[in-house]
Amino acid sequence: LVLSDAVDWSGDAWRKNVVEGGYCPPSVKFYEVDDERFVEEWKQRQLEKYDIIAFNFAVNQNKALSFCRNLLKPDGLLLAPINTQQDYWLKQTYQLLDAQGNVIWSANDVGAWSVQFQPDVTQDTCQGVWCAPFNG
After folding, report:
1. Tally of CA atoms within 13 A in the half-sphere of 29 that contains its CB
2. Of 13, 15, 29, 89, which alpha carbon lies 20 to 30 A from 5's?
3. Mean pLDDT over residues 34-60, rounded?
4. Cβ distance 14 to 30 under 8 Å?
5. E strand or H helix at 64, and its extent?
6. pTM of the predicted model, to two decimals?
7. Residue 25, exposed/middle/buried by CB under 10 A (0-12, 13-18, 19+)?
8. In 3D, which of 30, 39, 37, 28 has the Cα closest to residue 1?
């Protein structure tokens, strides 16, 4: 049995695609919080470290490295779209990192498309409809 955690600051997609007729293995626990509140809870509850972490939103490199070094098991991996420049939310590089933060694999483009993801809503520099003041 593989235990998994899913974290999203908005539970809308979870409710629509899992609760209301979708499917997700019962071993997955959902947390409706942003990643920074989740890390606080993770530390407080002393939860286990992870084999794999996958971000589905853009992050700055320092956040990715922090997750690698603090939340991954020694042989764990993290996959994330990492901003090509600090706080530049318009282009990311997909990177696979080990627990020390070393790049195992990266891609600037996927097929004919540049990599661009929703920005990290916890950052003051967040731009777009996902960010405050547009999305509370």
Report:
1. 8
2. 89
3. 93
4. yes
5. helix 61-71
6. 0.83
7. exposed
8. 28
